[in-house]
Amino acid sequence: MARGLDILELLDKSPKPMGVREISRHLDLSAAIVQRLINTLSEYDYVAQDPETRRYFIGYRAFGLGWSLTAKDRLISIAKPELDMLASQHLLNSYLGVRRDRRAIYVLSVQSDGPIAIRSAPGSLTYLHSTALGKVLLAALPDEEARRLLTAEPLAQVTPQTVTDPESLMAELAVIREQGYATVRSENIQGVVSVGAPIRDTSGAVVAALSTAFPEWSTPEFTIDEVATLVLASAGRISQTLGHRSP
Questions:
Q1: Which one of 3, 121, 211, 230 is CB 3.0 to 4.6 Å from 133, fit for a cystine?
Q2: 68 with 55: CB under 8 angstroms?
Q3: Could you tell me the pTM of the whole model?
Q4: What is the pLDDT of residues 147-167, one digit of tens each?
Q5: End-to-end CA distance of the chain, in Å?
């Protein structure tokens, strides 16, 4: 099962169809094993084959699974109108994400009609230490757990501005908890500012984070204070609909 999922992830990320031998090289598997797995995935329409090149690409059945989750997941259905509003009314690219161990996963992404595209596809992974969304999720953890995640592996220097010192990040998490939101400047994408806020459930636990991103050169049209107000309001409305009641 794990190898089949590896093939699906590889094909999903590939900009073009891939052949069996190419897949086997990327995953360090024999071509025979890859072909057998591909045959099974193709049988259930999770993988499709180009009839001319005989190469494989992600199938429509995989898309159907994501569409089904979008329609059925309560968090996504509640958050989607807020992200749409931030994108359409305020021209802010907007994202919803959750934490999975040492990474964050984008579960929803809405591109604004603004002048620059900042795309993060649903299902894609991102770093916790270099994104506003990720820092919000880290700040929701007890210090011991946050430090464990920040020291479990060397932190990637995504841009020259990325903070990779765990103790500096721990100090930043304390500020995020105090002010209620996180900001990053050029730490994940050069020239991009992002603001994130937590989403809480009935118990008050942080179950997800909402973030927005905009080009740094667009300020003062977008000031961090103004964007933070919008993000906090949207995250608050989502939390309230999930059953959270602010003290």
A1: 211
A2: no
A3: 0.74
A4: 999 999 999 999 999 999 999
A5: 45
Token reading at 62: 């995989």
Q: What angle do CA 102, 109, 16 make, to 5 degrees?
A: 85
User: What's the alpha-carbon Rg for the chain, to the nearest Å?
Assistant: 20
Burial of 39 (0-12, 13-18, 19+ CB in 10 A): exposed
Rounded CA-CA distance 80/95 in Å is: 9
pLDDT in tens, 24-82: 888 888 888 889 888 888 887 778 888 888 898 877 666 555 554 554 578 888 999 99
Q: Contacts for 173-180 with beta carbons within 8 Å, 24 or more apart?
A: 173/135, 173/138, 173/139, 173/143, 173/146, 176/135, 176/136, 176/139, 177/139, 180/232
Compute the distance between CA of residue 85 and CA of residue 154 in angstroms, rounded to an integer: 37
Which residue type is seen at 224? I
Neighbouring residues of 161: CB distance < 8 A, sequence distance ≥ 6 = 185, 186, 187, 190
Backbone torsions φ then ψ of 238, nearest 5 degrees: -65, -45
Per DSSP bridges, beta strands 192-200 and 206-215 are antiparallel
Rounded to an integer, what distance in angstroms lies between the CA atom of residue 189 and that of residue 119? 11
Q: Tell me which residue has tokens 């071509």.
A: 31
The residue assigned the tokens 């770093």 is 127
| Token pair belonging to 196 | 């994130």
